[in-house]
Amino acid sequence: MKHERRLARRLALQALYEIDSVNHSPEDVINRNVEENKAMTDTNIDFFRNLVLGTLQSKDSLDHLIARYAPEWPVNQLAIIDRNVLRLSLWELALFDETPLKVAINEAVELAKIYGSDSSPRFINGVLGSLAEHETEIRQYLLLDLKAE
Length: 149
Hints:
Strand content: under 5%
Number of strands: 0
Structural class: mainly alpha
Radius of gyration: 14 Å
Order of helices and strands: HHHHHHHH
Largest sheet: none
């Protein structure tokens, strides 16, 4: 299960990177990833799809929170990988109740180690650590934002 979730997160980050950098259709990117990863279970496909679509749906709110809690790092100036690791993990830790806070942060750091620069893991850990201190407030903000849509 842990390995399958990790694969879903990796694919979700890759999908978000592609969507953010070249503006491909989210559904096309998701469908292609599912097709290319036939070993994924239905549960894991749902998790992957939720990660991508949930992150995209909440992108503006996530960016607002990142900017609010890490003001020295303008979101539009972050490396695309770092920006999307933060969005993905923040969405997961705030809105996906099945993932404990420490797991979401650890998984984000692992993604940063694989896909980011040498300084990405420390940066991601620091920003998410700051955000985690306000977990309840962030959850409420994102839930209210989702209900408003």
